Structures are given as C-alpha cells and as structure tokens.
Amino acid sequence: MKQILMTGVGAYLPEKILTNEELSTFLETSDDWIKQRTGIISRRKAHQEELTSDLAVNAANEALKCSKVSIADIDCIILATTTPDYTFPSTATIVQQKLGANNAFAFDVQAVCAGFVYALSVANGLMSTGQCRNTLVIGAETFTKLLDWNDRSTCVLFGDGAGAVVLQAEDSENGYGIIANTLHSDGRYKDLLYVDGGVSTTGTIGYVKMRGRDVFRHAVEKLASAMDEVLELANLTSDDIDWLVPHQANIRIINAMQKKLNLPDNKVIKTVSAHANTSAASIPLALASGVESGKIKPGHLLALEAIGGGLTWGASLVRYGRPG
Ligand code: UT7
C-alpha cells in the first residue's frame, strides 16, 4: 500500500464580510443571540457573479503553491460541494478547466458539511490503489446562495469560502499522511437538514431547512463515536492528537468535542467566529488557517471530523506534511 501525504493546504474567502450587526438590521436577531448560541461573529458572502468554482480555483492555487506541486502533475481533482455552479457538468471539471489541469480526472462529491472528509477518504482509496498520485481535494461553497434571508433560524449560521489540500502518494513507509478514515450516513434523518428544492422535485433550487436542536444532538453523539472509531483503527488515543480540526458549525459542538477528547485550547483550531458554517469548505479553511498561523507543523497528528445533511458524518486522522 502507498502512503498518502498531505503536502499543502490553501484557502480563499470572498471579500465581503457580513457581520451579525448587519444581519440584525433586517432580521429579528441580535449579535448577542448569534454569538452566544453559535460563536459566530461574522461570515463571508460571495458576490452573485462569484462562483463556487472561482473560490475553489483560488484555494487550489494556494494549496499548489504550498505543496510546490505543479498543475501539470495533478492527476485527480475531487471537489466537495453542495452549491455547484451548474446542475452539470460537475464543478470539479470547471475547476479543472480554469486551472488548466489537463492531466487530471475530476468529479464532485456531495455529502454537504461532511463533504471534505468524504472527499479525503475517496481520494485515499483511489490513490492507495494507484489510480492517481497527486490529487487536489477541495471543499468549496457559496452556501449563502441557498439561504432564505427571512429565516433567522438558518440564515445567520452559514458563510462562503473554499479550502484545498494537495495529496501525494509515496511508496515509502514513514508514518505520515492519511492514517485512518471512517464514514457514515443515515438517510432516515433527511428531514433534520435539507434543501426543499431540486431538479427532480420542485425544479427550483430551494432553501436550507434545519431542525437545529435535533441536528445538534446528533452532532455531539455521532462525532464523538466517529472519533473513537478512527482512533481505534489507528491504535491511537486522544492524547496523541496534536490538533483537532473540526467542522465549524457551532462553537458549542466544537467545545463539546474538545471536552470529550480532553484536549486543551491550544490543540483545537477554531475559525467559526469569522467563517461561520461554510459546509464542505470549513475543515480545509480551518486547516489552512492552522498552517498559515504556524500552529500546525509538519509531523503533527490532525483529527478531522464533520457532520452534515443526510445525515452524513465521518472522521479522519492525518499526520500533516512530509518527513524531513
Ligand atoms: O453543518 C451541519 C450541522 N449543523 C449543525 O451542527 C447545527 C446544529 N444546531 C445548532 O447549531 C443550534 O441548534 C442552532 C444554533 C441552530 C440553534 O440554537 P439552539 O440553542 O438549538 O436554539 P433553538 O433552535 O432551540 O431556538 C431557541 C430560540 C427559539 O425561540 P423560542 O422557541 O425559544 O421562543 C428560536 O425561535 O431562539 C430563537 N431563534 C433566534 N433568536 C434570535 C432562532 N434563531 C434565532 C436568531 N436570533 N437568529
């Protein structure tokens, strides 16, 4: 089996910052309520003409720079998104064209907020069996385009952005790279978090609908058990984790996971205050923030976890960077 190293990360956020204060000018909400219940202070919002593929390309270019891999060497692009540019072709192929990644095959993965851990796991499978050697895994969303701006229970929670990682297959055994993954879904929980439109139902795009309290309950329970599973698969314990890089939906969920894993503050990447919930982009955005700030260093053991509509959920353990 090959080792699948994570050799670069990159991020991109749209320019427009939308604060809680600004939301409270047209919604019955307050900075206090949003901060206390979610930890969110602001989020980014893409312009109407700014596409998910544009955000993805910017993040991918940063990840390529970080890993020093050239675009000609990328042979696979996997894009996790719930907010594609078009119904088809996949946004991944649009990103491929915009990057000029002519030696790659490209496809989208749809697992909503769990999309990045799903994409990472799919990439790991393809790369381990030698179907590709240098993969761009991207999480990119223009989630604010799916929101009903009259629904205070959902529209204050989400933001736009993109994050990307470069994965490289190596034949040597060095303990770096993707160590373990676990994925789950349970379609019986569809009505807890979904969009009420689509091609074969209403023929419209629809809006996000969520039973927040129920999703919260499932999140705490399912993320904890997914994390137990990957640690067991890897024969490691939470003491071995250098950084928890969780999906950034709600600071209370992140804090619950931190407590469950018994991790101090200086081992958890928290970006929810400035990014809000960016769905599939949230983990790679948090990863990029951790690397850029110098917190995450080569050799660090990263624990990633996410849950989203479906319900879908999963977790991964990755030793970041390359040895030496
Ligand atoms: O990424 C996918 C995974 N998604 C998640 O993990 C989200 C999980 N859920 C959550 O993060 C939380 O459940 C929310 C942040 C969505 C909601 O927080 P909560 O503490 O569960 O509040 P709640 O839904 O129980 O609502 C409490 C009250 C309600 O009023 P009543 O019924 O008590 O009178 C809501 O109507 O807060 C009200 N409310 C608001 N008030 C001010 C709901 N949204 C707002 C708002 N501003 N924006």
CATH superfamily label: Thiolase/Chalcone synthase
Strand order of the largest sheet: 1-7-6-4-5
Query: How many separate domains?
Result: 1
Instruction: Write the element-wise H/E pattern from the N-terminal end onward.
Output: EEHHEHEHEHEHEEEEHEHHHEE
Report the count of strand segments.
Answer: 13
Mean model confidence by pLDDT: 97
Account of the protein in words:
The protein has helices at residues 20-23, 31-38, 52-67, 91-99, 115-128, 152-155, 212-233, 251-260, 272-275, 282-292, and strands spanning 3-12, 17-19, 42-44, 76-80, 105-109, 134-142, 160-170, 177-185, 193-195, 208-210, 243-246, 301-308, 312-319. It is α/β, with parallel strands linked by helices and 324 residues long. The protein has a five-stranded mixed β-sheet, with helices on both faces. A four-stranded mixed β-sheet has the order 8-13-12-11, sandwiched between helices. Strand 12 and strand 13 form a beta hairpin. Helix 3 (52-67) crosses helix 4 (91-99). The two termini are 21 Å apart. The structure holds oxa(dethia)-CoA. Oxa(dethia)-CoA binds at residues 29, 33-34, 37-38, 113, 152-153, 156-157, 212-213, 215-216, 219, 249-250, 253, 277, 307-308.
Brief summary of the model shown:
This protein is an alpha/beta fold. It is built from ten helices and 13 strands. Helices cover 31% and strands 25% of the residues.
